[in-house]
Amino acid sequence: MFAYRSILHEQARPAVIRESRRAPWLAVSVACFGAFMGQLDASIVTITFPSMEHDFRVPVAAAQWVSLVYLLGLIAMLAPAGRRSDAPVLGPTLGGLLTSTIGWRWLCT
Q1: Residues 6+ apart with CB under 8 A from 18
Q2: pTM for the structure as a whole
Q3: Which single residue of 21, 47, 58, 68 could bond 62 by disulfide (Cβ 3.0 to 4.6 Å)?
Q4: Where are the domains of the chain?
């Protein structure tokens, strides 16, 4: 399914990234943004516990299972999604389809 690629050999970064002085800061920014989004996501789910208790008439321990199942599902999909994104193109991705059909500028309109 996936072409064999050695994990010991990494392709060289493109010249535009190698020569950019901002590339390390961009990498740090992306990592920090990802960590922030994970915390924001977890806190949003936590805030909903009281309303889930009330709506479903369950104790808080039962409502916490929603958070646990969500995080387990997220973790279970992380590795396959990363592997798929690293694989050579087996067909157009959703982002590729959107960009080739309606373009990225539709977000700005």
Answers
A1: 12
A2: 0.53
A3: 58
A4: 19-87
